[in-house]
Write a structure and sequence with these properties.
Length: about 450
């Protein structure tokens, strides 16, 4: 096969690279992308390289390392770590760029790559990833002198642990349930939180790329074991991480899942100060902006994704960012999405307010919400959204097209957007009452069905 057939167009998403191993992504894919990244950043530069726990990661990471070395760049091998750890190390040790082999929360047969340029900037399409794609598809470009490889795993874990412990403070008296889902935070999250004084009860806490405990993505239906654990053991709260550790889903003391945007609203209400900037994405509840207004903070809306929110935070000098999916970003954590850091912030809020997590959640505005994923062919999902933009505008809806199409009505709003990481459309709606929500969902579903039929017909 030629280089282009090993580096397929469809594996390049908005802010990372993902596909099914041995169907979309091969060892040669890893080699060519590593070589392209090394050539783009430059010979002699220092690149951090890490991987998650997936079965295919070992082989892909090894080939990526070879590609980088043959570009003349130097590899610092961080080992198997969560994504927030490489985010931390990129700035802590002044790396010139880097990569982690991971497919984040996708099913176990998937794998991929998250790439970084200087100053820990995430490479997305339009911010460097398109250049990597172009170079990789042209084939390997070997430098006359090879780069070097240095084992940096020990230094990585020591530094990250010290950072989180220094920010966590004293967590004595708090009991926390954690579920790493056999992913990259297995063992590490428990060890770090224990060093901060918290009592930790963990499940699915050993690394296994087959993910025997649950799916790599923590969803309300997949983390029942954690919900039961928190209630049965009388723990203060729980958190479930996704496979690569850049997302966390909180469970309160009653075993109720706290959606990512509501965790963000809670953080705004109890931690953000007047004048602080907060970045949130288009599918977040209106409760987030209400909390921002209440604190006299400044809200900034962003497209969904880790390639967009950190950049918006830097631009606006924001202290906090978040997504409905459970990503939470902190300026203190180098604008990275770090759920372990978020865990320490939630713990502090509970200690300072002397309230249970369920009581803090009860203080937030209460909206009725609906969310659904609709599988569609990868090639038409964006065409459906484009059709909807025109259709809803022609029908007189008040719309926003920052990411997908969001229609706001008197009774609430609905959003239809294409997933950046999977062949799905996502429909989200919110209203003050169940009756209004049902009405909104009916309108949105009818419009979506019409758009899908129209696009398929052409």
């Amino acid at each position: 096969m030629d280089s282009e057939s090993k580096v397929k167009d469809q594996i390049f998403k908005a802010y990372d690279i993902r596909g099914i191993y041995s169907r979309d992504i091969f060892e040669e894919t890893a080699y060519l992308i590593g070589n392209a990244l090394g050539n783009l950043i430059g010979p002699g530069k220092k690149l951090a390289l890490a991987g998650d726990v997936r079965v295919s990661t070992i082989a892909l990471k090894k080939e990526m390392e070879t590609g980088i070395v043959e570009s003349g760049a130097n590899v610092y091998d961080l080992g198997v770590v969560p994504t927030p750890v490489i985010d931390f190390c990129l700035t802590e040790f002044n790396f010139d760029g880097g990569a982690i082999v991971t497919a984040s929360h996708n099913p176990r047969e998937w794998n991929g790559f998250k790439l970084y340029s200087e100053d820990a900037h995430v490479m997305g399409m339009g911010t460097g990833l398109e250049k990597v794609k172009e170079l990789a598809q042209k084939g390997a470009k070997k430098y006359t002198g090879k780069g070097s490889v240095k084992d940096f795993a020990g230094e990585t874990i020591r530094s990250y642990t010290a950072f989180i412990v220094s920010k966590a403070g004293d967590l004595k008296g708090l009991s926390i349930g954690i579920d790493p889902g056999n992913g990259s935070y297995s063992g590490l999250a428990k060890d770090i939180l224990k060093k901060s004084g918290a009592e930790i009860v963990s499940i699915n806490d050993f690394p296994d790329g087959n993910f025997p405990g649950r799916t790599p993505e923590p969803k309300p239906e997949s983390i029942s074991e954690l919900k039961n654990l928190v209630v049965e053991k009388g723990l203060d709260f729980g958190i479930a991480f996704d496979a690569d550790g850049d997302r966390g889903i909180f469970v309160d003391d009653k075993g109720k899942v706290l959606r990512g945007d509501m965790a963000l609203a809670l953080m705004v209400k109890n931690w953000v100060k007047k004048g602080d900037g907060v970045v949130y994405e288009v599918s977040c509840s209106d409760a987030v902006q209400e909390a921002i207004n209440e604190k006299g903070a400044k809200g900034f809306i962003s497209p969904v994704g880790r390639a967009f929110i950190p950049e918006k935070m830097i631009k606006e000098k924001a202290v906090l960012g978040g997504e409905i999916s459970g990503h939470m970003y902190f300026s203190e954590a180098r604008n990275a999405d770090d759920p372990l850091f978020a865990t320490t912030r939630i713990a502090h809020i509970m200690s300072e307010r002397r309230k249970k997590l369920s009581e803090l959640v009860a203080e937030l505005p209460n909206y009725e919400s609906f969310a659904m994923e609709i599988p569609v062919e990868e090639g038409i999902k964006f065409r459906i959204v484009e059709y909807l933009k025109q259709d809803l505008a022609n029908a007189g809806f008040k719309i926003s097209v920052l990411d997908g199409v969001k229609a706001r009505l008197d009774k609430g709003w609905f959003l239809i957007r294409a997933s950046n990481t999977s062949p799905n459309l996502r429909l989200i709606a919110e209203a003050k009452s169940k009756e209004d929500l049902d009405s909104l969902v009916k309108v949105a579903t009818e419009k979506l069905n019409r758009a899908t039929e129209a696009v398929n017909a052409h």
